[in-house]
Amino acid sequence: MGRLVPKKGYDDLLEALRLLQQRGVEFTLNHIGSGELDDAVRRQIQALGLQSRVNLLGTLPRQEVLNYYQRSHCLVLACKVAANGDRDGIPNVLVEAMAVGLPVISTRVSAIPELVEDGVNGMLVEPANPHALANCHAYPADPGSSVDRHGPARAHSVEKRFDNRRCIVHLHDLFRQP
Questions:
Q1: pLDDT tens, 100-126?
Q2: Is there a smaller number of Cβ atoms within 10 Å at the N or the C end of the chain?
Q3: Do the beta carbons of residue 40 and residue 73 sit within 8 Å?
Q4: Beta bridge partners of 55
């Protein structure tokens, strides 16, 4: 899920999916969102032979987005610093996915490591590294992994550090200090 813009790293994600396909890994990517790279992403999907595995669903109503969060195995967001310097802070889709306990895989860009603690409540790799992304594919599906244990950790991190009510109370307390 996310806007189809350079800082989201869809070129890297699609290359990681090509690597997984070469390895014989079964997967389907359902992408929700739209943006300036829509045509380029579609061309890359074709060029990499991923048409049967990648579904670009466009923008969907909130309830449908929630349904996808709830039935997905993981959310992968391959953020990076765009050529023009644009980058994500803490992407909303990571917060939303973690709030429902969905496993997340992302990159060490900007403030993402403040939300996703590698090996604690998700997996992080270096940006612009499709091989590292592909190597994380077993994280959400491996029966020997600690994904089930991480579900509550993901939801707790979001609730503890990013819940609006808690943030407002904290800000109120800060403003009241002399």
A1: 888 999 999 999 999 999 988 899 999
A2: C
A3: no
A4: 30
State the Cα–Cα distance between residues 121 and 98, nearest whole angstrom. Answer: 8
Instruction: Give the pLDDT confidence of 77-101 residue by residue, as tens digits.
Output: 999 999 999 999 999 999 999 988 8
Please answer whether residues 118 and 104 qualify as being in contact, where contact means their C-beta atoms are separated by less than 8 angstroms: no
Alpha-carbon span 120 to 133, nearest angstrom: 17
Question: How many other C-beta atoms can be found within 10 angstroms of the C-beta atom of residue 98?
Answer: 27
Going along 93-174, which residue ranges are E strands?
A: 104-107, 123-125
Q: Name the pTM for this structure.
A: 0.86
Residues 100/69, Cβ–Cβ less than 8 Å: yes
Q: What confidence score (pLDDT) does residue 153 get?
A: 64
* Residue 145 pLDDT exceeds 70: no
Q: State how far the Cα of 99 lies from the Cα of 113, in Å rounded to an integer.
A: 16
Q: Which domains does the chain have, with CATH numbers?
A: 6-176 (3.40.50.2000)
Q: Which CA distances in Å does 8 have to 30, 36, 128, 156? A: 15, 12, 10, 25
Distance CA 156, CA 169 (A): 18
Amino acid making up residue 125: V
Question: Nearest Cα to 9, choosing from 132, 135, 103, 117?
Answer: 132
